[in-house]
Design a protein that fits this description.
The chain contains 20 helices and 4 strands. The protein is mostly helical and 458 residues long. The protein has one domain. α7 packs across α12, α9 runs antiparallel to α17 and α12 packs across α20. This is Permease. Keywords: Membrane, Transmembrane, Transmembrane helix, Transport.
């Protein structure tokens, strides 16, 4: 009887069948036993992933509130989109993957579109929406192969690394560790209680990460917040941590404030494209990495349910904008749950449920000061630098565009400028060194959009 049931599941992985003897409906729907897991393992895996990634509940509002979105509204949007998209990933794509507002996408939204290019946050949300629409079209029509082949792997790795350095720079800046200087452009901040508190919190967070504590980043945020609590009371001049209550009704003031039609301007197309490009490749890279590490593959050796997973990711980006936050994307922190043995969509469902209570805890979470989230930003930058080892630095025709993309993001304080010069330099080098046949049509389009962005915004 068990053998027959197994064959039926494999033949139709998305169908719902009657439970076999000894199975419950969760086991049957998600195929828990068939994947070599158990309900207990799946639940524990969901908790592990949530602990590894719940820092986003505080860090994402901290970043996008700098664009003008109220912190409490940004927090509500973060929790809602994390709940809805992770639930969809679990129930529809049936993969153990978290989807939430992405690091890098929130930095692009705040520091490039709003603070850099001067867009209102409503129009910037419109750009997020349209990038989600294009992402959905790519996912539905399954054209990922053509796009993957067009953009060189070295540039994809470089963009991830550059965004990581940019996020780290933001973390140091938010903590006052790096400040502006007329003589040297940037310099170390004053050695005051704030800087010392940040440094101690950063080192404590790094040590917890190295020791592989579950939820190391959120523990680091909590620890640094406690360190900052006496500021302005026992030492220092400014009070950084103030109690405003434990719970409150969610703030939905940013919901449906997106300016969809205002974002449809030629000058904004490069921003939409950069969001699409970053989100698409982050999602694809995450799915491929997780499928390799946990053997989450189909019979052809491809990531399991890839089209459905990419579709969920795309629609999550579309929904994020009307809710009032930057684009949602797959989280590589999902690997924490996979490492615990999670293999099915039940993991994502557990993650989604764990996010929901934080919808009502915005007063408690608003206690967290900027210097407490800054260590998490620095460590996220470290994690995002991993692909740098995959770049062949001896091939200068590949390495130079990658180098420009990496170094210009933090130095120009702009993700789009790093990507633009990376694409432009790649096309120019290939064209003038007799390798024009290595330039795919999508790269010509990317270079043209880069020129449009540079001309219209600078």
């Amino acid at each position: 009887m068990e053998q027959t049931s197994t064959v039926r599941h494999e033949a139709s992985p998305h169908s719902v069948v009657a439970p076999a003897a000894g199975e419950n409906w969760l086991d049957t729907y998600f195929g828990v036993s068939r994947r070599g897991s158990s309900l207990r393992t799946e639940i524990l895996a969901g908790i592990a992933t949530f602990l590894a990634s719940m820092y986003i509940i505080v860090v994402n509002p901290a970043i996008i509130s700098a664009a003008g979105i109220p912190f409490s509204a940004a927090l509500s949007a973060t929790v809602l989109i994390s709940f809805m998209s992770s639930l969809a990933m679990g129930l529809y794509a049936r993969n153990p993957i978290l989807v939430a507002p992405g690091m890098g996408m929130n930095a692009l939204f705040t520091y490039t579109l709003v603070l850099g290019a001067g867009l209102s946050w409503e129009v910037a949300l419109g750009c997020v929406f349209w990038s989600g629409v294009l992402f959905a079209l790519l996912a539905v029509f399954n054209v990922r192969k053509a796009i993957i082949e067009a953009i060189p792997a070295t540039l994809r790795y470089a963009i991830t690394c550059g965004i990581g350095l940019f996020i780290t720079f933001i973390g140091f800046k938010n903590a006052g560790f790096i400040v502006a200087s007329e003589a040297t452009l940037v310099s170390l901040g004053s050695l005051d209680p704030t800087l010392i508190t940040f440094f101690v919190g950063m080192m404590a967070t790094a040590i917890m990460v190295i020791l592989r504590f579950n939820g190391a980043l959120i523990l680091g945020i909590a620890f640094t917040t406690l360190l900052a609590a006496p500021m302005g009371r026992l030492w220092g001049e400014e009070v950084l941590v103030e109690w405003s209550g434990l719970a409150a009704w969610p703030d939905f003031s940013a919901v449906m404030q997106v300016d969809i039609w205002g974002a449809l301007k030629v000058a904004y197309l490069p921003f939409i494209f950069v969001m699409l490009f970053t989100n698409f490749f982050d999602a694809l890279s995450c799915f491929m990495a997780l499928s390799e590490s946990a053997d989450l593959k189909d019979k052809d050796g491809n990531p399991r349910n890839l089209k459905r997973s990419m579709t969920v990711d795309a629609f999550a980006s579309m929904i994020a904008a009307p809710l009032g936050t930057s684009a949602a994307q797959t989280f590589i922190e999902s690997g924490a749950g996979v490492a615990q043995g999670g293999r099915t969509g039940l993991v994502a469902v557990v993650i989604a449920v764990l996010f929901l209570p934080f919808l009502f805890l915005s007063p408690l979470l608003s206690l967290v000061p900027g210097i407490a989230t800054a260590p998490a930003l620095v460590l996220v930058g470290l994690f995002m630098l991993a692909p740098v080892s995959k770049i062949d630095w001896t091939r200068y025709d590949q390495a130079f565009p990658a180098f420009l993309a990496i170094i210009l993001m933090p130095l120009t304080y702009s993700i789009t400028l790093g990507i633009a010069f990376g694409f432009l330099s790649f096309v120019l080098i290939k064209a003038f060194t007799g390798r024009i046949d290595e330039i795919k049509p999508a790269m010509w389009v990317s270079a043209a959009l880069s020129v449009v962005m540079l001309v219209t915004t600078h």
